[in-house]
From TrEMBL:
<dbReference type="InterPro" id="IPR007995">
    <property type="entry name" value="DUF742"/>
</dbReference>
<feature type="compositionally biased region" description="Basic residues">
    <location>
        <begin position="1"/>
        <end position="11"/>
    </location>
</feature>
<dbReference type="Pfam" id="PF05331">
    <property type="entry name" value="DUF742"/>
</dbReference>
<feature type="compositionally biased region" description="Pro residues">
    <location>
        <begin position="14"/>
        <end position="25"/>
    </location>
</feature>
<feature type="region of interest" description="Disordered">
    <location>
        <begin position="1"/>
        <end position="38"/>
    </location>
</feature>
<protein>
    <recommendedName>
        <fullName>DUF742 domain-containing protein</fullName>
    </recommendedName>
</protein>
Amino acid sequence: MTPPRRKRRRPQPVASPPPPSPEPASGPDKPGNPERLYTIAGSADGARAELDLVTLIVARSAPPPSASPEEAAVLRLCAAPLSLAELSAYLQLPFSAMTVVITKLITTELVQARAPIVRQAVADRSLLEAVMHGLQKL
């Protein structure tokens, strides 16, 4: 029995890349532009609350009409507690910009920052063995 012959692929014609768009490469609406981050995180005194990535943020009220789009998005997302890292990922903003936005919301009392729920230390092994032996005797 002879093995089947493989068919050779014909080279596909290479398509030319699409023409560049007439828009400028930089602008206030382009992602990753430092000017846009400055407008989001701009604050008069530059003060920031002591926040870390696992700090839980909970909204206290609905977004007021005067809230910026980022602040309104945070207030809508935080109906249930979310960590600052999750908010940063959902809104696609760097952590430093998020801390400024959250600080502003904390000072206006629109959100509450909570420490993360810490797991209790594991129980002593001898206690667990005593409970296990007690359950086995039942």
